Amino acid sequence: MPRTRFAPSPTGLLHIGHAYSAMFTMEAAKGSDVLLRFEDIDAGRCRPEYYEAIDEDLSWIGFKWTEPPIRQSDRRHHYEAALESLKQRDLLYPCFCTRAQILDEEQRIAAAPHGPDGPHYAGTCRRLSSEDVQQNIDQGKPFSLRLKIDKAMSSLGRFTWYDQEAGLQQVNMEDFGDIVLARKDSGLSYHLCSVVDDHLQQIELVTRGQDLMPSTSIHRLLQELLNFTVPQYHHHKLVADENGLRLAKRRQDLSIRDLRASGLSPIELLNQAQIRLV
Ligand code: GLU
Question: Closest residue (by CA) to atom 3 of ligand 1?
Fold first, then answer.
């Protein structure tokens, strides 16, 4: 009876894929705790009206949470403490590259390997001298914080994690570049906040879509670095649209809200999700 969580981002209305995911989580808990966590660190994309809509739509499909929901936007100090601990061990470095510079660099290195967040970063800012770093900071240039992936992995060696559906997964350093743990805009990242919260909320089973499997390797790495307990993982199938493609939030016609307005009952909606799994 594992303690689980559902962690939507209030950046749009929940759709039929979220409905499936939420109910999958609740069933996996088998009567144990189910937590609702709003992943809302991206202030530019989150909207106040979506928190309430998510509450309401989840309640309508029968998803029940057992503790008051938390919002990541209220918990910055926890994530900053984790960043500080990595900084202390010289595992982070500031990156001043603009999006355009990164794109340019990617085009130059045509065959750059890809990780969960896109092509691997070429490491440009890692080669900056400490004087240049200081100068950039003094000039007020915005920066992200990247993980020194080789240093992080060298202390750990290869390791694995287990997915309840896909089985054993190997984590290799070559799977990632120097990933961003603190973004320029928010000073935080999904990977960092998700791992810190799963730890602090004592989550025993993480359930989410298979599209997030590559992120889980990063999460396992962060858990190792931060000495966190490791939950179990179950990445479930995704609900597809009528063309067999993964749903995006912009598909408002497949939102729980619109399907409900079209006369569907919660059971019918969940049945539809079930037959569209890919
Ligand atoms: N906030 C993420 C999303 O809405 C969920 C990630 C997770 O469950 O870890 O896709």
Answer: 8
pTM above 0.85, yes or no: yes
Query: What is the rounded distance in angstroms from the CA atom of residue 218 to the CA atom of residue 51?
Result: 28
Q: What tens digit of pLDDT does each residue of 164-198 get?
A: 999 999 998 788 899 999 999 999 999 999 999 99
CA distance 176 to 222: 13
pLDDT in tens, 140-171: 999 999 999 999 998 887 889 999 999 999 99
- Cβ-proximal residues to 186 (8 Å cutoff; 6+ apart), any chain: 41, 42, 43
pLDDT digits (tens, 9 = 90+) for 199-239: 999 999 999 999 999 999 999 999 999 999 999 999 999 99
CA of 6 to the centre of ligand 1 (A): 8
The residue whose CA is least distant from atom 4 of ligand 1 is 8
Q: Which domains does the chain have, with CATH numbers?
A: 4-74+237-275 (3.40.50.620), 77-182 (3.90.800.10)
CA of 77 to the centre of ligand 1 (A): 20
Atom of ligand 1 nearest to the CA of 215: 9
> Within its chain, how far is the Cα of 215 from the centroid?
7
Specify the residue for token string 């709003």.
38
The type of residue at 89 is R
Which atom number of ligand 1 is nearest to the Cα of residue 5? 8
Using CA atoms, how far residue 30 sits from 34, 138, 145, 148, in Å, is 9, 54, 39, 39
